[in-house]
Amino acid sequence: MSEPSVIVRQQKQLGRLTLNRPAAINALTAEMVTIVARTLDGWVSDDRIRTVVIDGAGERGLCAGGDIRAIHADAVSGGTASLDFWAREYRLNATIAAYPKPIVACMDGVVMGGGIGISGHASVRVVTERSRLAMPEVGIGFHPDVGGSWLLSRAPGEIGTHLALTGSAVGAGDGIAAGLADHYVPSGRLPELLEHGDVTRVAEAPPPADLDRAWIDECYAGDDVAVILDRLASHPHPAAQAAAKEIATKSPTSLVLTLRSLREAAGLPDLRAALDAELRLSAFMLRLPDLAEGIRAQIIDKDRRPRWQPATVAEAAAALGTPPHR
Questions:
Q1: DSSP reduced 3-state for 271
Q2: Cβ(238)–Cβ(301) under 8 Å?
Q3: What is the CATH number of the domain that holds 154?
Q4: Active-site residue, 145 included
Q5: Which parts of the chain are coiled coil (predicted)?
Q6: pLDDT digits (tens, 9 = 90+) for 248-258
Q7: Where are the beta strands (DSSP E) in the chain?
Q8: Does the active-site annotation cover 137?
Q9: What tens digit of pLDDT does each residue of 207-243 get?
């Protein structure tokens, strides 16, 4: 008999949800989203459960994102299963954010894309020395969804814009500085946290943040990706020049739409409004050529040579005009 995709346990007054696809770094499937949502709904009125903990099986990470291969199948065939999955996933993100009991998310190891969605909206977000947090969607022709636009648009200064447009992963110190996490717990003390759910017993001072807001805030201001790229490429700081080179490898369409999504999210009233906007954008991008091509290049063929359409940011901005998803 196969292992369940989510292990559900009750430990005294603790409800524990363990994402259980370690070979896939616990990438989310529709079944997993359903199990987590159904369990959280049941625990709302269960007085035996005081605190919920979400963690991931295996040593590699909490969650590497969604089932990218299934999304690719929809993108190339015109299928609609991804639309249903995103709608359910985004509802779960909103449920986690509004949950009436504390949810402790153990963001150990790899936490990317959908992994941020299932942990970044929790009330207590824990990172370790092994944490690598990222929203890398622009590299596959998509955008930071699962509430990523909401989280990144509220990071200090332009840190969120930098993370969104480069898709870069950050560690514990920068994750906390960017507002993606709250507490630092050494991985060796996670068993204690998973036993009682009280982060105050095991939390320590986080490592220092590495990201330098001086050049980030200067270079990423504004609403024009082409201008941002020019600023980065001409800036004397080596990290800015490296960011320009990294961004230049991403989908131009994704870059333009992602920057618009972040700027729009900054003015929205709440997470649910941001998730609604993201769902509209996801549905639009599912039918664009870059999503299928990006997944092909990164996941299917792994040649790392995507052929983006359009091929430049200027062409993408001109082709998109007023965002069709609005």
A1: helix
A2: no
A3: 3.90.226.10
A4: yes
A5: none
A6: 999 999 999 99
A7: 6-11, 14-19, 51-56, 61-63, 103-107, 110-112, 124-127, 132-134, 183-184
A8: yes
A9: 999 999 999 999 999 999 999 999 999 999 999 999 9
